[in-house]
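Ticket opened by: R.M.
Priority: normal
Category: complex prediction / small molecule

The reporter submitted a protein together with uracil and asked that the result be attached to this ticket for the collaborator who will pick it up next week. Submitted input follows.
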Amino acid sequence: MRMYDILEHKAAGRCLTEAEIAWFMDGLCAGSIPDYQTSALLMAIFLNGMSEDELACWTDAMARSGDTVDLSAIAGVKVDKHSTGGIGDKTTVILGPILAACGGKLAKMSGRGLGFSGGTIDKLESLPGFRTGLDEAEFVRLANTVGVAVTGQTARVALADKKLYALRDVTATVNSIPLIASSIMSKKLASGSDKILLDVKVGTGAFMRTAEDGRALARAMVDIGRRNGKETVAVLTNMNRPLGRAVGNLLEMQEAYETLRGRGPADLTELCLWLSAKMLAMAGLGTPEDCRARAEAAVENGAAAEKFRQWIAAQGGDLRALEAPADFYPEPLCRVVRAEAGGFLAVRSAEDIGKASVALGAGRQTKEDAIDYTAGLVLAASPGEPVAAGQPLCRLYAADEARLDEGEALLREALAVEPEAPPAEPLILDVVEAP
Ligand code: URA
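Result attached by the on-call engineer:
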């Protein structure tokens, strides 16, 4: 087989055969296909798309290109959850303890921040001592005993995705539904769970800007799951505003703990209860109504917060950093951004809120950057709420004035105070399941 012929087929709009896909993935991982030919193939897929059969086969080959995780030693039905990435999304940290308190389990590999969106592993590592490089034996032991285990993605899971993603990033081929769907689902298929719940973010702070695109991505991923024998459900959720009010690693961990104690923002609380109930029901632990009631009860009666403390301690994290960050980190500077006029708080661009938090130090501008765990921002009002002139809109935290200036400039672009209340938008836009 020759790469030239595969490129000619795909450029002409033909579907790649199973043999062509297998040959390409082998060559990609062995390093025998030059980057310029892989890039050309990515561009041909970007322009011509993929059929459903072709995409399922391509994703399966990606999933098998590296290590696959065996979760069979963990009792019960394992349901994985994945968010396509947004601003202020700390749901994994909240879901794990709720599920565990209700008799479920979360055994999950998570990632680091990417661009303007944060990552669960960075958030967890803001607790001094928290270990995110668990070996398989400890991962399984914690899932079976505590009910929650979260570890970083190993470099060898879905190896082909690492190579393809690095090239997509520099060839303007990131934003393609088949390429995003296969990238996400290859990692999920390799991660060993029995079922998958996908949270597809839609809006100004997400890859998918419209519900139509979000639905197309959701359908593609649900179909890949079905064709590869894994029940997959996707929920489309609103990312026209940050989830909750805190954006930044330690700030989000504090908000997560507050939410587990029943004192979280309404949108974050609702989404976490919805996702927990869905995951418990997918795991066969009750009817949707019963699972929802149990998730609510676990938050109200303190069982979920107790599980959170157990889990953080089991992975070595120091919870005292949530109550007394100054005992662990240099105290950040704080700047309050106030409303210049009265009206209603509106978010013009959730992406710019994410960019503001990166500028403050909460994310990486280059791969080598260190994260400032105490940096970030906390909205002082929820979008849609009335605000008076001079009232705080947001508190910014950073190590120096220059970062605060940059963060404030971005934040002022991102927020607006409108004379009329913006129309309320639903949090949950749609649910996509296999037919
Ligand atoms: N997340 C991924 O893992 N891959 C993509 O292509 C986009 C988001």
